[in-house]
Structures are given as structure tokens and as C-alpha cells.
Amino acid sequence: MMIVAVALILGVLFGGFILIPRGSQTEVCSNASDNKASKIYSKADVSLHNKRTDCWIIIKDKVYDVTSYVEEHPGGDAILTHAGDDSTEGFFGPQHATRVFDMIDDFYIGNLEQ
């Protein structure tokens, strides 16, 4: 009888362990198309990445690591003009084709600290 009682108690505990959720597992996502987790960067953080070999830019309070694109940029070194800084005005200039607005999401790494 004792074995049956212990088995019943263990069964209830084990069943409760499986059925009861163990906390929420939410994921923070950005508006970028690939839903990368968002990270927050300060302007000081971004300003450290101001070279051809390490180039971050800010566009509309979002941070992008465009290092891999610097050499491919059709505008040459123009992309480096605002390396480590806000490039919103230049990005939305008339020189860019509409496809650049789709491409930029590939370089998204986080948001600018408000």
C-alpha cells in the first residue's frame, strides 16, 4: 500500500512538472526583416566604429554595421563620410536607388540609445 501511495505522489509531481510552464521565454525582435534580437548602442559606442575596416552608421535611430559593404559601395568612399555617425540624410539622398532600402536590413545590428 505504501508503494502505491509513493508511486501516486511521484506521478502527480512528475505530471505537474511536465504540464506547468517554467517561465516565459519571450524574444525581443527588431523591425529588420530577419528578426534579429535588438541591441541598444550609444552614440559613443557607434563613434568607435569609424574606419574602412570597422564601419558602423546610424540611420533613423537604427545602427548598421556596413563594414562588409564599404568596398562594394557604388559611391566609393562617400559611405565613410559619416562612418561612426548619423548617416540618415545621406542615406535618403537622391543618389540611392530604391533597392538600397531593402538591402540595409541585412546590416542591422541594433537601435540607438534614446
Automatic annotation (TrEMBL):
<comment type="similarity">
    <text>Belongs to the cytochrome b5 family.</text>
</comment>
<keyword id="KW-0349">Heme</keyword>
<dbReference type="Pfam" id="PF00173">
    <property type="entry name" value="Cyt-b5"/>
</dbReference>
<dbReference type="InterPro" id="IPR018506">
    <property type="entry name" value="Cyt_B5_heme-BS"/>
</dbReference>
<dbReference type="InterPro" id="IPR036400">
    <property type="entry name" value="Cyt_B5-like_heme/steroid_sf"/>
</dbReference>
<dbReference type="InterPro" id="IPR001199">
    <property type="entry name" value="Cyt_B5-like_heme/steroid-bd"/>
</dbReference>
<dbReference type="GO" id="GO:0046872">
    <property type="term" value="F:metal ion binding"/>
</dbReference>
<feature type="domain" description="Cytochrome b5 heme-binding">
    <location>
        <begin position="38"/>
        <end position="113"/>
    </location>
</feature>
<keyword id="KW-0479">Metal-binding</keyword>
<keyword id="KW-0408">Iron</keyword>
<dbReference type="GO" id="GO:0020037">
    <property type="term" value="F:heme binding"/>
</dbReference>
<dbReference type="InterPro" id="IPR050668">
    <property type="entry name" value="Cytochrome_b5"/>
</dbReference>
<dbReference type="GO" id="GO:0016020">
    <property type="term" value="C:membrane"/>
</dbReference>
<protein>
    <submittedName>
        <fullName>Cytochrome B5-like protein n5 ATCB5LP CB5LP</fullName>
    </submittedName>
</protein>
